[in-house]
């Protein structure tokens, strides 16, 4: 069983598993090697971690030094992380999708001394800036034939292949030194620097301690006690992000679960069928795509098949609602549910591998209708909420109590407050112990105090003081309230649109209403200080192609926006229909259809897929202004 105590640190979690939960030779990591899935034991993981530790001890790395990783999810990530953490070094994971300038900033701001690199593309990116990174001593590629990459003359860092590091024989003296370092780690020591996405300025290095991480894992396992040592997690969200780091990697290190690494997002569906995971962490966009494809597949053929699919969903909905109300489903509805399961639901579940107990959705708000859809199928989606600065979890859905459209109950050991945005008066404070399933309150900014709050921003005392007030409350910048005892997120404070008439519009819930349309893949709302709301719409590419018989060349045309009136009229039908669900001042009065999705490479979205509002509004200012000069009348 998991053993947490006041001296627990990130490296101690995995050691506890080997001592008390699993035998060393049992499987911990699973990854695709060539055409086969390879299993890696706890023992092999720890041997490789010790080799990494010994290598860096030999190189003079001391406690508190920052060592970087720029690599996709893989066993190599785990060996390096465990190896550096147990000697007191700090993990600085860099998103592989960041630009050269952002990579250079993080390397220099954190003072990274070594950087693990996962593929030739990333190495070329690093080599373009490494000459200006004075603290960088070692570049460690994990791939073969790295010697074929041209090395610029200004590179002073030594390039050492990862295989050489892992092949190091650990002497008895080095082993004793590793054990001494590991024993000397304190919970308050910094475990990792995770740089914020930077939607509103320069990224900041969030200092998260061993205590932050370990306590977050501990209370999440208390809140979701159904996670056991026999689970298989499929990991595809980046370990450079705090959500996947904590909710998959650290949870598995603590509980002894297996971690299978997906090959890529494109191969995720295939990997799910091969690995057959029992738990997955995901983001709303993935669930929305599964929802859209399932609906389309179930109804596209029409006729009897579509009728059966629609009947099954309605049956699943009635069954779910009865169970959630604490009522008996009755013999007739239970029998109908069994038929729906056999004819429809089982086929959808089989595509996930057929063993999925639940998925945890985080990183953004999950549209209520999408959560309900999975609930109707009998696939449980637990929602969680938090930020990098909160380790990350502040609230998560309880396994036995689902309230769709909320992110669950406050985790044990912290306080979550709702503060009036204008007056700064506290509206309400809730803890895990004050939970009341009938409680509701007005909305305001969500603030938090307790074990999940970061140590601060690295080398940025002024920004730290701005984020954490004198009473130790961390201000999240998110707007929300308590609904049926659970935390409900409304939007980001900085996203709030105030129209020309002083009406407040929170974009996220409005966008989620419009995303019910199968024609829409993404939607970006505009209207701050304007008379009415407009939007940039990203169409569902597959639906658009099939409806208008479009070739791939259509999406490669130079113009950003689609001007085909037939397509515009086609989209407008859904916009007008869905608008009836909204208040008049929230309705979209004009829109532009963007030919291609917002891009990380273009700097339009962050690595966690959040749209950079300022960047998008500036980049497409001409198109946006045109929507307000086309004679549309506000209500």
From TrEMBL:
Q: Which CDD domains match?
A: VL_LC_FACS_like (cd05907)
Question: PROSITE patterns attached here?
Answer: AMP_BINDING
**Name the UniProt record assigns to this protein:** Long-chain fatty acid--CoA ligase
Q: Which UniProt keywords apply?
A: ATP-binding, Ligase, Nucleotide-binding
Q: Which Pfam families match?
A: AMP-binding, AMP-binding_C_3
Domain AMP-dependent synthetase/ligase per the UniProt entry, residue ranges? 23-458
Native source species: Pedobacter albus
InterPro entries, A to Z: AMP-binding_CS, AMP-dep_synth/lig_dom, ANL_N_sf
């Amino acid at each position: 069983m998991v053993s947490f105590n006041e001296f627990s640190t990130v490296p101690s979690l995995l050691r506890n598993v080997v001592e008390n939960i699993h035998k060393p030779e049992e499987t911990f990591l699973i990854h695709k090697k060539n055409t086969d899935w390879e299993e890696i034991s706890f023992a092999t993981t720890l041997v490789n971690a010790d080799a990494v530790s010994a290598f860096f001890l030999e190189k003079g790395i001391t406690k508190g030094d920052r060592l970087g990783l720029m690599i996709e999810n893989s066993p190599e990530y785990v060996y390096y992380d465990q190896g550096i953490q147990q000697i007191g070094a700090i993990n600085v994971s860099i998103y592989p999708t960041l630009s050269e300038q952002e990579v250079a900033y993080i390397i220099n701001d954190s003072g990274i001394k070594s950087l693990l690199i996962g593929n030739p593309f990333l190495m070329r990116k690093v080599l373009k800036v490494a000459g200006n990174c004075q603290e960088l001593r070692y570049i460690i590629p994990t791939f073969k034939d790295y010697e074929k990459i041209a090395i610029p003359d200004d590179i002073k860092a030594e390039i050492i292949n990862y295989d050489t590091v892992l092949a190091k024989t650990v002497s008895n003296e080095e082993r004793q030194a590793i054990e001494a370092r590991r024993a000397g780690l304190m919970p308050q020591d910094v475990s990792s620097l995770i740089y914020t996405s930077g939607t509103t300025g320069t990224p900041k290095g969030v200092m998260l301690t061993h205590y932050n991480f370990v306590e977050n894992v501990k209370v999440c396992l208390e809140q979701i006690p159904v996670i056991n040592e026999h689970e298989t997690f499929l990991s595809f969200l980046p370990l450079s992000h705090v959500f996947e780091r904590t909710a998959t990697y650290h949870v598995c290190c603590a509980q002894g679960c297996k971690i299978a690494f997906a090959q890529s997002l494109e191969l995720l569906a295939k990997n799910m069928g091969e690995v057959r995971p029992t738990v997955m962490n995901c983001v709303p966009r993935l669930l929305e795509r599964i929802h859209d494809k399932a609906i389309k597949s179930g109804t596209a053929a029409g006729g009897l098949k579509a009728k059966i699919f629609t009947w099954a969903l309605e049956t699943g909905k009635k069954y779910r609602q009865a169970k959630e109300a604490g009522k008996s489903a009755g013999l007739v509805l239970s029998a109908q549910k069994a038929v729906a399961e056999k004819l429809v639901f089982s086929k959808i579940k089989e595509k996930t591998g057929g063993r999925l107990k639940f998925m945890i959705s985080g990183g953004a708000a999950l549209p209520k209708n999408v959560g309900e859809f999975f609930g109707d199928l009998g696939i449980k989606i637990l929602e969680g909420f938090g930020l990098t600065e909160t380790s990350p979890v502040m609230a998560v859905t309880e396994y036995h109590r689902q309230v769709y459209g909320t992110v669950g109950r406050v985790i044990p050991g912290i306080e979550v407050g709702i503060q009036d945005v204008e007056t700064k008066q506290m509206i309400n404070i809730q803890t895990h112990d004050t939970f009341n399933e009938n409680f509701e309150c007005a909305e305001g900014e969500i603030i938090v105090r307790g074990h999940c709050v970061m140590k601060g921003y690295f080398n940025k005392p002024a920004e730290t003081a701005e984020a954490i007030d004198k009473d130790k409350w961390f201000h999240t910048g998110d707007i929300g309230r308590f609904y049926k005892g659970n935390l409900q997120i409304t939007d980001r404070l900085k996203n709030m649109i105030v129209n020309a008439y002083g009406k407040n519009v929170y974009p996220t819930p409005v966008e989620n209403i419009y995303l019910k349309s199968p024609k829409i893949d993404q939607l970006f709302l505009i209207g701050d200080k304007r008379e009415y709301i407009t939007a940039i719409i990203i169409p569902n590419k597959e639906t658009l192609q099939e409806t208008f018989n479009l070739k791939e060349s259509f999406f490669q045309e130079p113009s950003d926006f689609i001007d085909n009136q037939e397509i515009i009229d086609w989209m407008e039908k859904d916009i007008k229909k869905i608008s009836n669900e909204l208040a008049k001042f929230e309705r979209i009065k004009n829109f532009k259809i963007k030919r291609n999705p917002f891009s990380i490479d273009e700097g339009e979205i962050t690595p966690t897929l959040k749209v950079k509002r300022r960047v998008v509004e500036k980049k497409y200012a001409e198109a946006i202004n045109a929507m307000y000069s086309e004679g549309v009348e506000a209500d």
